[in-house]
Design goal:
Blueprint (H helix, E strand, L loop, with lengths): L2 H22 L3 H15 L4 H5 L8 H7 L5 H12 L11 E6 L9 E5 H21 L7 E4 L28 H10 L12 H14 L3 E5 L3 H8 L2 H11 L4 H11 L4 H8 L5 E4 L6 H10 L4 E4 L10 E3 L6 E3 L5 E6 L12 E2 L8 E7 L7 E13 L2 E9 L3 E2 L6 E2 H14 L6 E7 L6 E7 L4 H15 L3 H8 L4 E7 L3 H11 L12 E2 L4 H4 L6
Parallel strand pairs: 3-4, 4-5, 5-6, 16-19, 17-18
Antiparallel strand pairs: 1-2, 7-8, 8-13, 9-10, 9-11, 11-12, 12-13, 14-15, 16-17
Helix pairs in contact: 1-6, 1-7, 9-13, 10-11, 11-12, 14-15
Length: 531
């Protein structure tokens, strides 16, 4: 099947959901109530549904009064029982597989995935794709690379025999649409369980170099693609050898390797590439900006907020931020500042959000997560009809606390962003973490940037000043428990960070960049000696 035919059929299949989403955007409260009714009815016979009286619930208020807010730890015993093979625990739907979280901000957690959850994802994916193809129809004329991020470990199952992880990210689409997408994907199945991360990256790059008519790249982390294309010169000889049977691709590669800049090299290799979709908010902003310099001829589109647990928002052409996926899950929001000890009276529904305010996201999904505190914080930047447009700004509840300093990742992300803007620094990687081996221990900013030393010095001074606005951090500094924050250049830190996340159970293309990491030992991982 030709790409334009396959993509046209895919677009046709997405158009009805686009129409339903547009209608939902004009009646957000009614749509969210309908989503909740369907969720309650489908799971009334599950153990969780029986325990919380789902059959007796008649309204949104009933649901919120009967079902408590939950963290992963609250639901973990039920998830463990389901993983061991017990059915009908959290949902009336059979668990098809467990999807691991990225592991970049803590231990790997297994999130149950059901047919109902997959349909909820599709209600976010389909209007996004339809909106994208209608705005840029030229994207339908060629191949696409959809992030295929298999774990480098062997496939595994839970104690109950349930698979862990999708084979590739096109599985989120399901059914005939998945088959259409796979027919035009760059290397949809040939890159499967390589021996190690480097082998996976090489095989991926080889497949991309062969794709002369590549039109669309959809990935998660912008750093993933940057690391990939920056390896081209080092792997040039091996790539030329593996392309000997493909004269056109070999000729393009040879011409690309003589280009003066990485940007020119990428344009020679992928002249028809029209759009890159990736994370572009919060601490991914700098990495996305760096990726844009490598592909100046390509449009960049922020990914919206898509988590393993649920589909929160979708990009919308011509609008700032991304639109809440009000047809996917039942959504609630806690105003930032009330996150650690939430008062039920402070919670907001999707139609009650205010422009300029920040909220922590709470999900109820067909995967069995009810009133689940996702931990992601969004800011409302506008509206599409009645539907809020949001921007991801960081994580709530992700705190580094070695000496009582209680640094929050969302706050640190704002501090770093302000300092980089003030000091004209555009890092490809930036992460703050405590090094407890220093005397006294101190937070270190690991930075990969070409800015002069004087800019880095001004930036860390500004960061230290802003961090000390946090009473607990300032108190630890005044007691001498912490020394002043430091900055060190860390060339190649993104690659090391990616490898470390994969070793911890993450997926190569899905590692979320965090402004703050609460783990120790990064100086050793980055091969740095800090005095």
């Amino acid at each position: 099947m030709t790409p334009i035919l396959a993509n046209s059929l895919w677009l046709a299949g997405c158009l009805p959901e686009l129409a339903r989403f547009r209608r939902a955007a004009t009646r957000v409260r009614a749509e969210q109530a309908a989503v909740l009714r369907q969720l309650i009815a489908a799971n009334a016979r599950s153990e969780f549904g029986r325990q919380h009286g789902f059959r007796d619930l008649r309204s949104v208020d009933d649901y919120r009064a009967r079902v408590p807010l939950a963290s992963f730890e609250d639901l973990a015993p039920s998830i463990d029982r389901a993983a061991a093979g017990t059915g009908n625990v959290l949902t009336g739907d059979r668990i098809k597989l467990f999807e691991p979280t990225s592991g970049s901000s803590g231990p790997t957690k297994l999130i149950p995935s059901t047919a109902a959850l997959q349909r909820e994802f599709q209600r976010g994916i389909r209007p996004w794709i339809a909106n994208l193809f209608l705005a840029y129809p030229e994207l339908m004329a060629g191949q696409a690379y959809w992030s295929i991020t298999p774990s480098v470990t062997a496939r595994r199952r839970t104690l109950g025999g349930i698979p862990v992880g999708f084979d590739d990210d096109s599985a989120y689409l399901g059914g005939w649409q998945q088959r259409l997408v796979r027919s035009v994907m760059v290397a949809p199945t040939t890159i499967d369980r390589p021996a190690d991360t480097e082998a996976f990256l090489y095989q991926t790059l080889l497949a991309l170099v062969r794709a002369a008519k590549l039109r669309l790249i959809s990935i998660w982390s912008p750093t993933f693609l940057s690391l990939l294309v920056e390896r081209l010169p080092a792997w040039g000889e091996a790539l030329e050898r593996d392309l000997r049977g493909d004269g056109r691709a070999g000729a393009r590669l040879k011409a690309a390797l003589t280009a003066r800049t990485p940007a020119e090299r990428n344009q020679v290799l992928w002249p028809h590439l029209g759009l890159i979709s990736c994370w572009a908010d919060a601490n991914a902003t700098a990495a996305a900006a760096h990726l844009s310099t490598l592909f100046p001829h390509v449009r960049m589109q922020g990914k919206g907020l898509i988590a393993t647990e649920g589909f929160v928002s979708l990009p919308w052409i011509g609008r700032e931020g991304s639109a809440l996926a009000v047809r996917s899950h039942f959504l609630e929001f806690a105003p930032v500042g009330a996150v650690e000890d939430i008062n039920e009276t402070e919670l907001r529904l999707a139609d009650e959000l205010e422009a300029g305010r920040r909220y922590a996201v709470i999900l109820s999904t067909g995967g069995g997560l009810y009133r689940y505190r996702l931990g992601d914080v969004v800011e409302v930047v506008g509206f599409l009809a009645e539907c809020p447009l949001v921007r991801f700004v960081g994580r709530s509840g992700y705190v580094s606390d070695w000496f009582g300093e209680k640094l929050n990742e969302a706050h640190v992300a704002r501090v770093l962003s302000a300092a980089f803007e003030r000091c004209a620094i555009g890092p490809s990687f930036a992460m703050l973490a405590c090094d407890t081996t220093l005397s006294p221990p101190a937070y270190v900013l690991y930075l990969d940037a070409a800015a002069p030393d004087s800019h880095l010095e001004h930036a860390i001074n500004a960061i230290e000043g802003d961090l000390r606005a946090n009473f607990q951090y300032d108190y630890a500094r005044r007691l001498g428990q912490l020394g002043p924050a430091r900055v060190v250049r860390s060339p190649g830190a993104a690659r090391v960070h990616l490898a470390a996340a994969i070793e911890g159970g993450g997926r190569a293309g899905g590692v979320k960049p965090l402004a703050l990491d609460r783990r120790d030992g990064w100086s050793r991982k980055f091969g740095l000696s800090i005095c």
